[in-house]
């Protein structure tokens, strides 16, 4: 991030990142340029913008999957069973994790995407091998997502002045409402730049969509929907914008359109959490939470032939000591027998399980919530059923595949929303279950909805569920326009408190 990035040696999970990058086929020139991304110029990148694209995606994914697994503990879909994880779950987030979450997004992601944007603005379409508009669109979507990602952890962070060192040596933080509107504008700009029929985007180095610009457009619109929901919960009047967007066919509406970061069943290319499990016995550290297990059992109350939501056996293992699904409480769990709890299943902790950035199920469940608020209960019912179906169908043909008969029974017995006293809360409970392993979405959505009802762990740093990360100490030292510390108990603007 501007002057901070130039003066600070950031801590990183470099070994994993380099292994992933090399295994994904990034060319040799990438390593030379990215040794110091601050020295990469438009002239270096203009012929080959893909050289900075892969490392940006990898750094973003690594921070999501490894360093911020704690978000699932904060939202209490998962619970830690060891001392190390318990410290973080009690809201004592390590300064290195906070620093990496802040700085990596501004340099490895935001700055590198700005270099691509600047280079494609100057590129002559007749003299380069790619379509500048499509490549610029890819970079804008990823850069805006990085800023959107950071604000979900820290609240007020720079965006409008970020990565413009000539103009803003010490970028000021934006209020969260302003930042959310800014990233929406950036995604709109990217959609205008994109020309799916033209092709020639970044392809082989595009880990997520392999250059499919129609899918990039769908991702941009889906991220806009997330941001609009946060604006709405914060008190902004965006009803017209949401109503327009949910009618847009260019959202992620089917699992074939999901934004997934892939992993592979080969050495060094497996899912990050699986590697920790495989190499360090991490499986015993993570249990499905007591609240998750009880919520999923509760969804099946009164349904003949089902003891729980059929996804429960996909998400969690039965506890070895009892043969039942038993979730762990939020804290303290260290020292308790692992065999007494339902740890995360092999369908989730496996080498090829992808990092799910955006999915059809989340879109449909958001549409369901919004249609209820608009008084369209029939449309909400259809969207709810579609969202739950898409959530289950994600596992079709994969480990954790749910029997079609169980799916049909569950979907066919979802309650009529017009018979519920609080249909919005019911849908939001399904959102929480659907999001269960995704960071930071599950935590962000809980802060937006406060559903389900959860309490902070015993002995937690704060007497409320954590709302944000404290700013990294280096930010306060190096940026004269950010000189006040925040506390994890401070609600985000989007919480409307």
Write the layout of secondary structure elements.
Elements: H1 2-7, H2 14-23, H3 28-34, H4 42-45, H5 50-67, H6 70-74, E1 78-80, H7 83-89, H8 95-122, H9 132-154, H10 176-193, H11 213-234, H12 239-246, E2 259-261, H13 272-280, E3 286-288, H14 290-298, H15 312-315, E4 355-358, H16 360-373, H17 377-393, H18 404-412, H19 423-434, H20 441-449, H21 473-478
Antiparallel strand pairs: 1-3, 2-4
Helix/strand/pairing category: mainly alpha
Strand order of the largest sheet: 1-3
Largest sheet, in brief, is: 2 strands, antiparallel
- Overall pLDDT confidence: 89
SSE arrangement, N to C = HHHHHHEHHHHHHEHEHHEHHHHHH
What would you report as the Rg, rounded to the nearest angstrom?
22 Å
Number of helices: 21
Can you count the beta strands? 4
Can you give the helix content as a percent range?
Answer: 40-55%
Please state roughly what percent of the residues sit in beta strands, choosing from under 5%, 5-15%, 15-25%, 25-35%, 35-45% or over 45%: under 5%
Ends apart, CA distance between termini:
30 Å
**Contiguous runs where pLDDT drops below 50 for at least 5 residues:** 1-38
Name the overall outline. globular
In short:
With 497 residues, the protein is an all-alpha fold. The chain is built from 21 helices and four strands.
């Amino acid at each position: 991030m501007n002057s901070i990035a130039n003066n600070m040696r950031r801590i990183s999970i470099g070994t994993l990142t380099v292994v992933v990058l090399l295994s994904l086929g990034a060319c040799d020139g990438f390593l030379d340029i990215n040794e110091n991304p601050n020295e990469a110029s438009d002239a270096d990148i203009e012929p080959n913008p893909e050289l900075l694209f892969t490392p940006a995606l990898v750094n973003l994914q690594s921070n999501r999957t490894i360093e911020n697994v704690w978000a699932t503990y904060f939202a209490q879909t998962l619970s830690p069973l060891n001392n190390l994880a318990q410290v973080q779950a009690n809201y004592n987030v390590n300064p290195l994790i906070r620093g990496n979450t802040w700085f990596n997004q501004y340099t490895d992601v935001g700055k590198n995407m700005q270099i691509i944007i600047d280079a494609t603005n100057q590129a002559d379409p007749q003299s380069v091998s790619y379509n500048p508009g499509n490549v610029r669109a890819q970079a804008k979507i990823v850069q805006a997502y990085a800023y959107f990602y950071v604000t979900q952890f820290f609240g007020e962070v720079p965006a409008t002045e970020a990565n413009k060192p000539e103009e803003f040596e010490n970028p000021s933080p934006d209020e969260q409402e302003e930042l959310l509107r800014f990233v929406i504008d950036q995604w709109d700009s990217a959609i205008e730049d994109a020309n799916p029929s033209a092709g020639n985007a970044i392809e082989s180095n595009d880990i997520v969509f392999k250059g499919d610009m129609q899918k990039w457009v769908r991702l941009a619109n889906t991220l806009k929907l997330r941001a609009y929901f946060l604006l709405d919960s914060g008190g902004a009047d965006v009803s017209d914008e949401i109503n327009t967007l949910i009618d847009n066919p260019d959202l992620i509406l089917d699992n074939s359109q999901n934004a997934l970061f892939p992993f592979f069943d080969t050495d060094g290319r497996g899912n990050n959490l699986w590697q920790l499990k495989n190499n360090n016995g991490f499986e015993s550290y993570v249990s499905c939470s007591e609240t998750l297990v009880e919520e999923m059992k509760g969804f099946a109350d009164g349904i003949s032939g089902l003891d729980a939501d059929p996804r429960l056996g996909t998400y969690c293992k039965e506890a070895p000591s009892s043969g039942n699904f038993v979730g762990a409480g939020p804290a303290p769990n260290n020292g308790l027998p692992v065999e007494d709890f339902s740890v995360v299943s092999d369908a989730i902790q496996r080498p090829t399980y992808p990092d799910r950035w955006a999915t059809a199920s989340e879109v449909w469940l958001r549409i369901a919530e919004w249609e209820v608020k608009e008084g369209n209960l029939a449309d909400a019912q259809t969207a709810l059923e579609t969202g739950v179906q898409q959530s289950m169908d994600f596992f079709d043909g994969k480990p954790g595949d749910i029997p079609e008969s169980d799916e049909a029974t569950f979907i066919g017995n979802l309650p009529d929303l017009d018979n519920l006293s609080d249909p919005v809360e019911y849908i939001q409970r399904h959102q929480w279950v659907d999001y269960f392993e995704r960071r930071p979405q599950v935590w962000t959505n809980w802060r937006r909805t406060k559903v389900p009802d959860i309490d902070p762990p015993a002995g937690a740093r704060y007497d409320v569920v954590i709302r944000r990360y404290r700013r990294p100490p280096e930010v306060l030292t190096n940026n004269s326009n950010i000189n006040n510390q925040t506390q994890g108990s401070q609600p985000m603007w989007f919480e409307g408190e």
